[in-house]
Amino acid sequence: MTQYLKENGFPVDLEFTTPQKYEDKENSFYGFKCDVLVDGHHYDELYFTDYRSRAFYANGFLAAYNWESEGKYKWRGKEKTHRENGDLDVQVGDWIVDKYDKIRKIWSDEDVTLPYEDIIRHATEKEAINHKLINKLVKDLYELKESNRSAWDTYGSELCAGDMSRKEKVIEDKIDKLR
Question: What's the pTM?
């Protein structure tokens, strides 16, 4: 059993039970399994092949625990968003805005769903926090504009253009407030 105890300066009692051999033939995994206890209560199960994995898990868990308990939110924005040659400096973990006005996080260098030439700028902290709602509103706005354009092509001046643009403006204002 591995223990990280409050009496030794840790914020919680984090314990790993004695590892047991574990096999998952369906996924071809052969290693060990142990239970993770936080303040004596079952929290998670850890599957690993290297005994050091428990230390890595504990390091990440305790760092996240301290971050949450202190209420600190560290924004990963950049002071310098462009390189010296003028190109946008984008790395894994950055939040970006693409040419379709969608807010996304870059998860890997080989992200095939994100053509790097479509990146317009880095997202702000507020945009990153509200990215799900902003992306939904951007999609709704796009669909509304397409619907309005199609209706205008079909019915022409029989429709109220003011009402159409007012509905679009309402969604645009919501997006601007969230940004």
Answer: 0.55
d(CA 101, CA 78): 20
Q: Pairing between strand 95-98 and 29-38? A: unpaired
Strands 29-38 and 41-48, by their bridges, are antiparallel
Spell out the domain ranges in the chain. Answer: 2-69, 131-178
- The values of phi and psi at residue 81, to 5°, are -90, -10
- Positive or negative: CA dihedral 118, 171, 134, 95: positive
Phi, psi angles (nearest 5°) of residue 77: -70, 165
Q: Which residue type does 145 have?
A: K
The 10s digit of each residue's pLDDT in 122-170 is 888 888 888 999 999 999 999 999 998 888 888 877 777 788 888 899 9
DSSP state of 62: H
Q: 3-class SS at 53? A: helix
Distance CA 4, CA 38 (A): 10
| Inter-CA distances, 103 with 5, 35, 128, 138, 179, Å | 41, 37, 7, 10, 10
Whether the per-residue pLDDT at 75 is higher than 60: the answer is no
- Between CA 18 and CA 5 the distance in angstroms is 16
